[in-house]
Amino acid sequence: MGALLGCYGHDVAGEDNNPLEELLNELENADLGDQARSWLSADENELISGAELGWALPDDVIDQVAWVTNTPVQEVADQLALVLPEVVDRLTPDGQMPPESLMDLVEQHRLPTSTKRSSNWPVV
Question: Which of 17, 71, 75, 121 has its CA 20 to 30 A from that of 83?
Answer without folding.
Answer: 17
